[in-house]
Predict the 3D structure of the following.
Amino acid sequence: MNNFDVIVVGGGHAGCEASHISAKMGCKTILITLNLDTIAQMSCNPAVGGLGKGHIVREIDCLGGLMGFITDETGIHFRMLNSSKGPAVQGPRAQCDKALYRFTMKSYLEKVSNLQIYQGEVVDLIVEKGRAKGVILRDGSEIYGKAVILSPGTFLNGLIHIGLVSYPAGRANEPPSLELSNSLKRLGLRMGRLKTGTPMRLHADSIDWSAFEPQPGDPDPIPFSIRTKKKLENKILCYIGYTNEKVHEIIRKSLHKSPLYTGKIKGIGVRYCPSIEDKVVKFPERNRHQFFLEPEGLNTKEVYVNGISSSLPLETQIEILKNIRGLENAVMLRPAYGIEYDFVYPDQISHTLECRDIENLYLAGQINGTTGYEEASAQGIIAGINAALKIKGEEPFVLSREEAYIGVLIDDLITKGVDEPYRMFTSRAEFRLLLRVDNCDERLLRYGLKLGTIEPSLYEEVMKRKEELKKGIDFLENKRKDGITYAQLLRSKKIEMEEAIQALPSSLFPLKREEILYIQSEIIYKGYIEKDKREFERLMRDMEKFIPENIDFKKIPGLSREIVEKLEKFKPKTLYEASKISGMTASALQILRHYIK
């Protein structure tokens, strides 16, 4: 049991994807986790997907990952967010049964060939001559491997805050990982401190549901996974509620007991998912803030209060609830809390997620400064793929910004770094119309096939259907009504999509909802998509351009001193090489492109 190809440390979402994919690619893998019963634990909201995040889950699925399939298996409430807006900014989201998700993932991993799951605590790394060789456990035993993937989540030197009370923990009532954090520092990795948090959980029977607005799921849910054949069902309702001025006043009066505002919390929090005290302070003009009541499963009474994350004292949290209509008698099952944890500045890793200065050591998930299950899973699958490829002596696998949100995510981490927990949004991508939810299979399924993580029969099935849909699009581009093609009528909004669909050949039916969205996107945004493709091709041609050997970077107007120093140090031969330098910004690259031209 002491020798493996790949050692994965941490059984969260990153660790699950990393261990699964490396084992699937034929590597003897071990997943070491603190507690076998909390593998794939949804520590915060038991939901998957959302804007930008839903795209990532689909991309993981097309590479042979697990998150999308497990979500479809355990989802209880499905919605397409931003459904009234354009397809580039729509994102699928599912509320999962928290316990069932964890159980299903563990059960699936236990059946994977080449994968062993082991309960233990890693306290140190075995590194010789700049190469990771294995790990040391709490009991002193050593496990050796050809690659080590660290995905410890928020456990590195974790510290929980509830008001002015603080205690070491990786999650509430679970021990933190102190020695491993110190080991990384001894190895010379630069580390920082971030903060996240979670809201209180309430007992469902103590809530007056009539005071809140029901939020049903979609009538025809779209699956996350191309492997899902069953019809998805919405099994619960979520509800929308609002805070009020009385609640805001309670919060303002309690700020002197908030670790956020007394300076006790040093880590930087998530700007796009702030605590309720942050919202009240930063948006004083708002007299209410929206929140959602989301059941955590079918066989539990726990309800997640999405939108009221907090690190305020327990008595303040109780007072907040008593002043929200419908929650006056709510029974709290778990208090809200904030958590600080150590992370590694991601400019120290490459696009394969391997450490630049410690060979065969890969980092994935919140250790790289991200937040969210989806971002963690994306890094996990990329780290697992690249660890397996390196062991096999094959070329590394890197997705570009123009072909996947996963590429955007990792490129942002490596080149821009983080000064707050990183969260994915569609706005982070330069070519959003090329990176839609409905064309993930076109973009990435061929990679899954090449890596051996997607079955050839599944690939052929999906691609055959895609070709049929393309023929349907061509049909609408040529079939006329009153002298004008259906495609032109759609683009000019002279007809609705339903009328265009009815004109399609019967051989295409039945059409799934996501297939209709694909046809609609390809037709309505045809001009924009072609423009983006031309821009992308031009960018790729530019990336191949050589940088003159005698160029004086200091003479290029607009470049910062830091960028000039990096260019002089690495002396990139092409714009592509320059784009991969840690800290290189999009604006600096644009300046360099124009200067060379």
In short: The chain has 19 helices and 21 strands. Residues 455-532 form one domain. Residues 456-478 form the longest helix (23 residues).
